[in-house]
Specification:
Blueprint: E1 43-49, H1 53-66, E2 71-74, E3 79-81, H2 86-90, E4 100-102, H3 103-106, E5 112-114, E6 118-122, E7 127-130, E8 135-143, E9 148-149, E10 166-167, H4 175-184, E11 188-194, H5 204-218, E12 225-231, H6 240-252, E13 256-258, E14 261-267, E15 272-277, E16 284-288, E17 291-293, E18 298-299, E19 331-333, H7 346-364, E20 377-384, E21 387-393, H8 412-430, H9 439-445
Parallel strand pairs: 1-2, 1-8, 2-5, 8-19, 10-17, 11-12, 11-17, 12-13
Antiparallel strand pairs: 3-4, 6-7, 7-8, 9-18, 14-15, 15-16, 20-21
Helix pairs in contact: 1-7
């Protein structure tokens, strides 16, 4: 998502999760036995829940703080994905395989990988339960469980993905279907959606639209495409500076934007998409499509809903400046699973990791946290195969830009940063716990004035 120091696109990058949410299994208490390997013990000084971007970077940082043998990560997925790349995979500019690595290869050496799923948290007793009912206790807990996709909340999905002309850049199972649908487009409506829920990388639903439009221009199909962006929001982007720039692009490229439209049903056999008009509850519209890109509804993982560590919706309830839990001082949260009022992106995870590292260090010394997270997040808005608007902003939706130039302009350099530099930074710096966001670079670039 970002600039030199902005890891990006969206997404607390959870390892690949398929379309349907897993069921919660009842916790009981037996001996600790993991599917992949047996955990060496049932107590850890630092226990990390989740092996996505937030979980891996914090486990690397905690390893240096308390020693690898005192850190464990609970994560069931055997593949770790760099999901920001999926925008380019869906647009045919990158291969899916380049976004994936075995989870074991990104797990910090010596840190215990408990290959299981968390089924319950009991912060009052400093323990969690995993799939077979085994209990794992901790001194400090870091929750990095990401966000769950809910295709099943749209009638006709996920089974509709078995039909042609429909794809989604939000799943490893459907992102290549997006590129196939773009290539196979002939004539008619091309519809891109944005759901009526929080999402990871709020820019991604429209990035693929710009890539598809560019591809059809290049292949002589543009005049036959009626491109529609149907969004449940009332604005094209939440930060005015970048929204104004995007609206100019939308006007130049003759793209129709329909606000307050939420996808509620897909009739894939008929190639029909049904949208609810959020300004007129209960009123729906049916659109025929030649191509449909679906951004699914999203929400907190099941295990967090009605959990002792979560707010009323299910997000981990943390202080927005320190990332320490509001009730349990030895519990912390990072990334998409938290209720931090900022855009859910990998760039945000990077910035949060540096703050959280410092917070935990002070808590371990029985001191009050002092370092404050300003809500920094970033989204490299891909507007073509060699163009990006690099959006960077804070809690107040105010630009917080790394470079001393107007980042609302489309730039080739920012595209290469997104496509080439950010993946390298992700694998080699963020996941190893050495990248805490671009704040130092920003300060240098702006001579200490920003």
């Amino acid at each position: 998502m970002s600039a030199v120091g902005v890891v990006s696109s969206c997404s607390c990058l959870r390892p690949g999760v398929w379309l349907l949410k897993p069921g919660i299994q009842k916790a009981s208490s037996f001996g600790l036995h993991m599917a992949a390997r047996c955990a060496a013990k049932d107590y850890y000084e630092v226990l990390v829940l989740g092996g996505g971007a937030g979980g891996i970077t914090m486990s690397a940082r905690m390893k240096r703080k308390v020693g690898a043998e005192n850190v464990a990560v609970v994560e069931p997925s055997t593949t770790h994905y760099y999901q920001p790349l999926w925008t380019l995979v869906g647009g045919g500019a990158k291969q899916l395989a380049t976004s994936a690595r075995p989870t074991g290869s990104v797990m910090p050496a010596g840190v215990e990988w408990i290959k299981s799923r968390v089924t319950a948290l009991d912060a009052d007793k400093n323990c969690v339960y995993v799939e077979n009912g085994s209990k794992i206790s901790y001194k400090y807990l870091i929750i990095a469980l990401g966000i769950s996709l809910h295709y099943e909340k749209i009638k006709g999905l996920p089974e509709g993905f078995h039909h042609p002309k429909i794809g989604s850049n939000y799943s490893a199972h459907t992102v290549e279907k997006t590129w196939k649908a773009v290539q196979d487009f002939k004539e008619g409506n091309a519809i891109f959606t944005f759901p009526n829920t929080p999402v990871k990388c709020a820019g991604a639903p429209q990035k693929i639209m710009y890539l598809a439009e560019a591809y059809w221009r290049k292949t002589g199909k543009r005049s036959k495409a009626n491109i529609m962006f149907n969004t449940s929001l009332g604005v094209i982007f939440g930060v005015k500076k970048y929204a104004d720039a995007l609206l100019e692009i939308i006007k130049e490229r003759d793209i129709a934007v329909n606000y307050k439209r939420n996808l509620v049903e897909v009739r894939a056999d008929k190639r029909e998409a049904v949208f609810e008009n959020l300004d007129k509850p209960g009123v729906t519209e049916v659109h025929q499509y030649e191509m449909l890109h679906v951004t699914p509804p999203m929400g907190p993982p099941d295990v967090l809903i009605n959990s002792c560590v979560s707010d009323e919706i299910g997000w981990v309830d943390v202080d927005k400046e320190t990332l320490q839990h509001k009730k349990y001082p030895n519990v912390f949260g990072i990334g998409d699973c938290t209720n931090l009022p900022t855009s859910k992106t990998a760039a945000a995870v990077a910035a949060q990791s540096g703050v959280l590292d410092r917070t935990i260090s002070l808590v371990m010394k029985n001191q009050l946290p002092t370092k404050k997270y300003d809500g920094y997040t970033s989204c490299p808005l891909v507007t073509g195969y060699n163009k990006v608007i690099l959006a960077e902003f804070d809690y107040n939706a105010q630009p917080l830009e790394t470079f001393p130039l107007d980042q609302s302009k489309e730039r080739v350099t920012m595209y290469h940063m997104k496509a080439d530099m950010m993946p390298f930074l992700y694998w080699n710096a963020l996941l190893k716990g050495y990248w805490g966001g671009p704040a130092p670079i920003r300060k240098l670039m702006h001579l200490g004035l920003k």
